Amino acid sequence: MKKIGLALGGGGARGFAHLPILEVFDELGIKLHCITGTSIGAILGALYASGHSAKDIAHLFYKLITPPNASWKDILRGKDMLKILELIDPHISFKPQGLLKGEKLLSFLYDQMKIETFEELSIPLKVVATDFWRREQVVFESGDLLPAVRASMALPYIFAPVTDGERVLVDGGLVNNVPLDLLDDDCDLKIAVDIMGESSAELTKIPSPRDAIMHTYQVMMDAMTQEKLANHPIDIYVRPPLQDVEIMDFHKPWEIYEQGLQAKDEFKRLLIKKLEEKKWKFW
């Protein structure tokens, strides 16, 4: 049996661009050998590895987030228009560790998957988090699933960190935003999806304080990914042409999905070409 591994990168709301890529595997009838994921890539990786198709996941988000073309008046009038707000759990404390706790999101994911451990997944999964004080990568691939996913997405300041024994864990994007180097060595074909995107800002523009906060983190992650690619060659590297999408733009999933679609046909063509070169056929 030929083995295909997939690495799903982090990037907050940009994760909606992963869905068109996952659709290709469903359309070709390909079952992945393994998945690695960071942050939103860990969330989508867990959902997909638990047996949900890309369409299942898209429908799931459709139920959570404002339908296409809804106006602010629609949102204010409709109780069910933005159900994702129900998953927001502010961290209220005299010493808050982050704006949100993230526990409601974990409960929601469990309700969708009904899976508690990595061992129950239909596709092996590796999830990346960061040990904040030791400044090192932590990789989860066994034991409790949802706490690992919660740690992987704990973007500093936005989500409270996760305490695991003597470790304080935060977003895996700090150390490995596109964990292509963690794909199993026995994979015959390795694929990585990087959803970092681009900005249309003038290259000579002086960044505003907001730009500095949002984009400094991305500069660091992008540099690490390019270093990973140089030292761990893969067969297909996909970077959907996302433009001017911020990590917290969860209010515009359909726009992000549409931008991600621009990479789908080329990825499908390239994947089929690679499979034909290796004389594999899944369809």
Please give a structural write-up.
The structure is a single chain. This protein has about 280 residues and is of the alpha/beta class. The protein is about 35% helix and about 15% strand. Strands 1, 2, 3, 4, 5, 6, 7 and 8 form an 8-stranded mixed β-sheet that branches. Helix 1 (about 20-30) packs antiparallel against helix 3. Residues about 70-80 and about 85-100 have low confidence and may be disordered.
Q: How many beta-strand runs?
A: 8
Question: Cα distance, first to last residue?
Answer: 14 Å
**% residues in beta strands:** 5-15%
Spans of at least 5 consecutive residues whose pLDDT stays below 50 are 71-82, 87-102
* CA radius of gyration: 18 Å
Give the structural class: alpha/beta
Main attributes?
283 residues; alpha/beta; 8-stranded mixed sheet; 9 helices; 8 strands; globular
Kindly summarize this structure in a few lines.
This protein has 283 residues and is an alpha/beta fold. The chain has 9 helices and 8 strands. Strand 7, helix 7 and strand 8 form a beta-alpha-beta unit.
